[in-house]
Amino acid sequence: MKFQFNVHTNETDYFEYNKFMLLRSYYGKKMFFMYRILFALICMVGMLVLLWNNGFTQGAYIGATLMLLFAIALQLLLAPFLTLTLKSNLKSLKKRGKMAFSPDSIMEFYEDVFIEIAPTNKTEQSYSVIERISVVDDKMIYIHVNNIMSYILPIACFESKEQCDDFFEFIKTKCANIDRYNSKIGGF
C-alpha cells in the first residue's frame, strides 16, 4: 500500500462538492454555459416574436424591453438559483435518509488500484477509470471517475505537507488531467 487516509466528510463538504461540480468543474462549466446560451436564445426569440406579431408598436417595444430585462436578470441569478435548488435537493435527500456519501471511510492507494472502504460498502477501482482530478482551493481533492461520480479526499487527511506532495507526485503518474481551482484568483 502506498497511501492510506481516514476520510471524514460532512454535509457541507458534500454540498460544496456538488456546487463545485455544478458551477466550476470541467463538466459543470460546459453545462452552465449551455444553459446561459439556451436561456438567452429563448428570450431573444421571444422578443423577436413579440415585436413581429405586434407590428413593432410602442407596446411591443415595451414588452421586448421587459423581456430583455428578464433575460439579464436570469443571466445574473442563474448561479444562485441553481445553488438554491441544489441545497433544496440535498435537504430532501437528507430528510429521506438517502445521502449519497459516507461520512467516514478509508481510502487506500496501491500501485495498481485504489480502494474506498466505508461502513456499508467497499469499492475497488483501477486508476484507468479516473477521468480527471480536481484540487479545489487547496482544501479538497476530487477524484472524478466520470461526470457524476467522484471520490472526495480532504487535504486535512494528510499528516504533513510532505505526505501531500508525495501523494501528488504519485497520483500524477496515474492521471494526467489534474486541474487546480483557486477561489482567491477569480474562482479558477
Account of the 3D structure:
By secondary structure, the chain is of the alpha+beta class. It contains 4 helices and 8 strands; from the N terminus they run E-H-H-H-E-E-E-E-E-E-H-E. The protein has helices at 11-23, 26-53, 58-96, 161-172, and strands at residues 3-8, 104-109, 113-117, 122-126, 132-136, 140-144, 150-154, 178-181. The strands form 2 sheets. The chain has a 4-stranded antiparallel beta sheet with strand order 1-2-3-4, with no helix packed on it. A 4-stranded mixed beta sheet has the order 7-6-5-8, covered by helices on one side. Helix 1 (11-23) packs antiparallel against helix 3. The two termini are 33 Å apart. The mean pLDDT is 88.
Q: Secondary-structure element order, as H and E?
A: EHHHEEEEEEHE
Strand tally is 8
- Strand percentage lies at 15-25%
Q: With helices defined by DSSP (H or I, 4 residues minimum), what is the helix count?
A: 4
Distance between the termini: 33 Å
What structural category arises from helix and sheet content? alpha+beta
Q: Name the strands of the widest sheet in spatial order.
A: 1-2-3-4
Helix content: 40-55%
Sequence stretches where pLDDT stays below 50 over 5 or more residues: none
Mean pLDDT: 88
Record keyword descriptors for this entry:
188 residues, alpha+beta, four-stranded antiparallel sheet, four-stranded mixed sheet, 8 strands, 49% helix
Write the layout of secondary structure elements.
Elements: E1 3-8, H1 11-23, H2 26-53, H3 58-96, E2 104-109, E3 113-117, E4 122-126, E5 132-136, E6 140-144, E7 150-154, H4 161-172, E8 178-181
Parallel strand pairs: 5-8
Antiparallel strand pairs: 1-2, 2-3, 3-4, 5-6, 6-7
Helix pairs in contact: 1-2, 1-3, 2-3
